[in-house]
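Go through this chain.

——
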Amino acid sequence: MILSEIVKNRIAELLEITLDVNSRKTEQIYARLIFVKFYSDMGFTTTRIGEMINKDHATVIYSRKVFEKEYLSGGYLKAIYDEFKRVPLFDTIDKSE
């Protein structure tokens, strides 16, 4: 399983959703924001992140700004992102595969 799939699965698990790139539901938006934040922190370019989620680089830039605003306001996104960061990704992989 490649890292982007592991990240997507972990985010979907935390938000209790099935990822849908085109949905405008709050949970789906938060999933994209967390994905963008994670890969931005890893040093990926906005173009590359956009390719992974089928969005353009401008959407990725905007998503980073929205993430920062929402995260600083506290609430649900902050709680989910903090939980995402708390558990190492590789601890969530099913090792029986």
Confidence is low (pLDDT under 50) at residues 93-97. DSSP finds five helices and no strands in the chain. The helical segments are 3-15, 26-41, 46-53, 57-72, 76-86.
